[in-house]
Amino acid sequence: MEILIRPDPEDVAALAAQILAGYAGDGATLGLATGSTPLATYQELIRLHHHEGLSFSKCQAFLLDEYVGLPRDHEQSYYRTIRREFTEHIDIDDSAVHSPDGLTEDSDAAGRAYDEAIQQSGGVDIQLLGVGTNGHIGFNEPGSSLSSPTRLKTLHPQTVKDNARFFERAADVPRHVLTQGLGTISRARHLLLLATGEGKAQAVAALAEGPVSARCPASVLQLHPHATVIVDEAAAQNLQDSEYYRYADANKPHWQRH
């Protein structure tokens, strides 16, 4: 795992966009995350598309998750959210943007179908991730199997609370989602996790320096052969080995990519 510490959220987003742009230019299959943390990264990628010619026309994209019970065109569905915040502003074809079926009546079959679709695409080349305050990635809440497939999950009360700001009322937040499992996520060739703000400091320390455990689902990144974690100073404040991470970053061989 490579841990990169940057001064502020803007620098985190700029570096993340630089890494993602390198894949997009090659027509990669991208794994996209929603939530507040990736927004600045998406804005930078949109800027690169409009002003520096970055094309996504040969890319495919797979979302991490979708609320159960919300149609695709619901304002807070993750499919609609990623369209509004990112993909409708670039040149990726709408048919190349995939999400789990939140209206399915057979969640097991829908999960299997989604994992199969990812495999048939050739697999995800780079998966963008955020991390929740309780260490969840996607909607793999504490207690999730580290080898889990895409499946139905019940949201943790803290996650419902965190996401209530996107809905008119807390009671409107769905309690269930279809989410890529930790096993599905781990099959991506490159995992890119972003975290900003002091509210994520405890989760960052747990995922990077704590034990690999279902108590902190994001700790599964420790087992991945190519995982990059980019954090700002506030999110890095609980890291015990932060000085080494800075040293390793500053002394990276010129030929080594993130």
UniProtKB/TrEMBL annotation:
GO cellular component, one term: cytoplasm
Active site positions: 65, 134, 136, 141
Activity regulation information from UniProt: Allosterically activated by N-acetylglucosamine 6-phosphate (GlcNAc6P).
One GO-annotated biological process of the protein: carbohydrate metabolic process
Pathway linked to the protein: Amino-sugar metabolism; N-acetylneuraminate degradation; D-fructose 6-phosphate from N-acetylneuraminate: step 5/5
Top enzyme category: hydrolase
Coiled-coil residues: none
Catalytic reactions on record: alpha-D-glucosamine 6-phosphate + H2O = beta-D-fructose 6-phosphate + NH4(+)
CDD domains, A to Z: GlcN6P_deaminase (cd01399)
EC number, UniProt record: 3.5.99.6
Superkingdom field: Bacteria
Occurrences of domain Glucosamine/galactosamine-6-phosphate isomerase (ranges): 24-222
A Pfam cross-reference name: Glucosamine_iso
Keywords for this protein: Allosteric enzyme, Carbohydrate metabolism, Hydrolase
Entry-linked InterPro entries: Glc/Gal-6P_isomerase, Glucosamine6P_isomerase, Glucosamine6P_isomerase_CS, NagB/RpiA_transferase-like
One GO MF term attached to the UniProt entry: identical protein binding
Swiss-Prot/TrEMBL site (Part of the allosteric site) positions: 144, 151, 153-154
Role this protein plays: Catalyzes the reversible isomerization-deamination of glucosamine 6-phosphate (GlcN6P) to form fructose 6-phosphate (Fru6P) and ammonium ion.
Family (UniProt): Belongs to the glucosamine/galactosamine-6-phosphate isomerase family. NagB subfamily.
UniProt protein name: Glucosamine-6-phosphate deaminase
Source organism of this protein record: Corynebacterium poyangense
Lineage start: Bacteria, Bacillati, Actinomycetota, Actinomycetes, Mycobacteriales
